[in-house]
């Protein structure tokens, strides 16, 4: 981009934004079954957008300068705590930051020289990211191959004197199942270890599903032994992106998440989050969304979500060759097939205007496709099931993505550090994945088939290069 010599008009800029977004997936309507959460209620989105804009330029850095930040955060965090068993919270930019703060607080409070985390293989990678940034060892434990849930005895066996935090999910994202929170929290408490419940997805969903009639086990801070919990409001709270809350049972642990510095001659530095300066726009958007929907609104969305999930599961089971993984207790549904290539199925769905999220195989769990059912899904559930059925039939005819002979061994043994981004793009193009400028959207079935065949460490290295290539300017 070249900086213009003179400023451009708002109309001109908005027209260019519209052009830039032409190939984006739609954020409304339910055709994108991951990443975005839609109530189907335009007035709620409008209220959030206007509140976001109103608070856009307010800086959360200094709450004494902008007391509106304090009042709004207390209201938002208070609503979350009221729904999820109490506690003392921090409003953050998302689940990753909430998890980062929970891990930091546990590490600092424990004071171990070589701290470690114990977590199921289905726990979100944000915990691995936090451990990477904060210098902790990750100790993953397997889950049951049929239920995909962690086992408390396995968790207990993985702990030692340097374990500072045990993690359980409500639900785990991949298959939408809830770990046995009470059992895991109990073994952690017996060992004197803190227990974090990752309810980033479920925190603002499970209570409303329960109110709508679903059987939901206790999972929040009311469970003995649970010491912290993360809950994203930009998921099933339906707030604009950048909205999450981390709750601590003990106010001292919330203080352990803070950062303060007095060792410089400038302004006072005290941060509740990883970020320092940050817009209060997302806080305003979250506050307005909660207020605009209220309890009745969330309960109605919960009922619609519950019905849509039941119909989705039944519909998938009726498609020849497809099966749902586990018994999801939430509105996250993953399905796989031993008869056709699910990655090809996802490409076929994309051709029909729908996005189904591919998930790679790992730890004995097969490759699958993930669907997040939201409040708007019910209105389009028949269309979604029609697309899944048609895409499955088309994938069966097309057959699986075919990897070039020797490609996996080549990638595994390749020294990626020796390739610059241009050379990596040329190599990818040579095997049918063209990432070069102007090439357009590659066939993701082949991309995912390559990644699925690689060991996890190699996957990570390739993904880093993939990201670097698509963001390169030349």
UniProtKB/TrEMBL annotation:
The keyword Plastid does not apply. Transmembrane segments: none annotated. This is Pyridoxal phosphate-dependent decarboxylase family protein. It holds the Pfam family Pyridoxal_deC. Its cofactor is pyridoxal 5'-phosphate. InterPro entries: GrpII_AminoAcid_Decarb, PyrdxlP-dep_de-COase. Keywords: Lyase, Pyridoxal phosphate. The keyword Disulfide bond does not apply.
């Amino acid at each position: 981009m070249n900086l213009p010599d003179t400023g451009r008009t708002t109309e001109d800029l908005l027209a260019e934004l519209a052009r830039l977004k032409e190939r984006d997936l739609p954020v409304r309507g339910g055709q994108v079954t991951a990443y975005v959460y839609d109530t189907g209620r335009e007035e709620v989105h409008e209220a959030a957008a206007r509140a976001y804009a109103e608070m856009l330029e307010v800086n959360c850095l200094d709450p004494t300068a902008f007391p509106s930040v304090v009042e709004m955060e207390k209201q938002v965090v208070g609503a979350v705590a009221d729904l999820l068993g109490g506690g003392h919270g921090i409003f953050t930019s998302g689940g990753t930051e909430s998890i980062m703060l929970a891990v930091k607080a546990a590490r600092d409070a424990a004071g171990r020289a070589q701290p470690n985390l114990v977590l199921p293989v289905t726990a979100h990678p944000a915990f691995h990211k936090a451990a990477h940034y904060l210098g902790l060892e990750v100790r993953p434990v397997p889950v049951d191959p049929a239920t995909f849930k962690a086992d408390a005895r396995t968790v207990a066996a993985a702990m030692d004197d340097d374990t500072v935090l045990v993690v359980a999910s409500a639900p785990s994202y991949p298959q939408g199942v809830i770990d046995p929170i009470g059992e895991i929290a109990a073994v952690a408490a017996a060992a004197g270890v803190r227990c974090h419940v990752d309810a980033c997805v479920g925190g603002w969903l499970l209570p409303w599903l329960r109110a709508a009639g679903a059987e939901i086990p206790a999972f929040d801070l009311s469970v003995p032994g649970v010491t912290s919990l993360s809950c994203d409001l930009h998921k099933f709270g339906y707030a604009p992106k950048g909205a999450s809350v981390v709750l601590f049972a003990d106010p001292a642990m919330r203080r352990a998440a803070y950062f303060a510095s007095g060792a410089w001659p400038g302004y006072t530095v005290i941060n509740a989050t990883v970020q320092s300066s940050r817009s209060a726009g997302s806080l305003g958007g979250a506050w307005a969304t909660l207020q605009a929907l209220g309890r009745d609104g969330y309960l109605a969305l919960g009922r619609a979500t519950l019905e849509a999930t039941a119909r989705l599961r039944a519909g998938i089971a009726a498609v020849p060759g497809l099966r749902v993984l586990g018994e999801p207790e939430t509105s996250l549904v993953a399905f796989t097939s031993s008869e056709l290539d699910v990655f090809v199925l996802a490409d076929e769905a994309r051709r029909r205007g729908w996005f189904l999220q591919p998930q790679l195989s790992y730890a004995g769990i097969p490759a699958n496709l993930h669907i997040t059912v939201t409040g708007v899904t019910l209105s389009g559930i028949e269309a979604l099931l029609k697309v899944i059925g048609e895409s499955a039939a088309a994938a069966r005819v097309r057959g699986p993505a075919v990897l070039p002979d020797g490609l996996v061994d080549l990638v595994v043994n390749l020294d990626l550090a020796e390739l610059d981004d241009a050379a990596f793009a040329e190599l990818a193009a040579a095997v049918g994945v063209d990432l070069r400028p102007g090439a357009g959207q590659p066939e993701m079935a082949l991309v995912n088939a390559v990644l699925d065949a690689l060991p996890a460490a190699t996957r990570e290295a390739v993904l880093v290069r993939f990201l670097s290539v698509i963001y390169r300017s030349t």
